[in-house]
Amino acid sequence: MFETCPEDIIQEYTEIYTETLNQRPLGQIPATVRVTPETRKEKEKSWITNRGHKWFTMITKESDQQISGLTEMVYIPESPYYIEQLLTGVKTEYRGRGLGKWLKAEMIDFIHKKYPKIKFIATDNAGTNAPMISINEKLGFTEHISIKTYQFNLSGLDDLIPI
């Protein structure tokens, strides 16, 4: 578990983060993100140092010390009863062993111990992400709000907006 990603794993961690983030199903929306050690450090500075958020990441390692999975959460002190559970991802070759569910369950346990006043843990995923929906349901999450994301072509937008 860490807040600031250790230097000795940051390269491997950001590669796995990028891989698993880009594998999540988003329906028809094409989206790719590249996380680098530099962008991770920038986000740590923004969230942890500048804003005072608590951002915890938990990873699993295999016997050969390769990172196999991750999950993360962010606590914002100004919202003391609410936590956001962020990305949970497992590298393709390590799936099917329950690592995603285990990571998420361990993070929930950590949240309850570290922040006993928490009443709400928010998480989100696409409606097409059946594996994560299954994990969330098994852990007791229930759908609260459904959000739709739309995509459109920006070219010609100026012609559509009256001046």
- Unreliable residue runs: none
Order of helices and strands: HHEEEHEHH
The CATH homologous superfamily name equals Gcn5-related N-acetyltransferase (GNAT)
Q: Give a quick account of the main beta sheet: strands, pairing sense, barrel closure.
A: 4 strands, mixed
Number of separate helices: 5
Q: Write down the overall mean pLDDT.
A: 88
CATH topology: Aminopeptidase
Helix fraction, binned, reads 25-40%
What's the gyration radius in Å?
Answer: 18 Å
Structural class: alpha+beta
Number of strands: 4
| Spatial strand sequence of the major β-sheet | 1-2-3-4
CATH level-two architecture: 3-Layer(aba) Sandwich
In CATH's first tier, which class applies? Answer: Alpha Beta
Beta-strand residue fraction:
15-25%
Supply the number of structural domains. 1
User: What is the first-to-last residue Cα distance?
Assistant: 52 Å
* Quaternary structure: single chain
Can you tell me the overall shape? globular
What does this molecule look like?
This protein has 163 residues and is an alpha+beta fold. It has one domain (10-149): Aminopeptidase, CATH 3.40.630.30. Helices cover 35% and strands 18% of the residues. It is built from five helices and four strands, in the order H-H-E-E-E-H-E-H-H. It has helices spanning 10-23, 37-50, 99-114, 130-138, 157-160; strands at 54-61, 67-75, 82-90, 120-122. A four-stranded mixed sheet has the order 1-2-3-4, with helices on both faces. Strand 3 (82-90), helix 3 and strand 4 form a beta-alpha-beta unit. It is globular and about 60 Å long. The protein starts with 9 loop residues before the first helix and ends with a helix. 15% of the residues are buried.
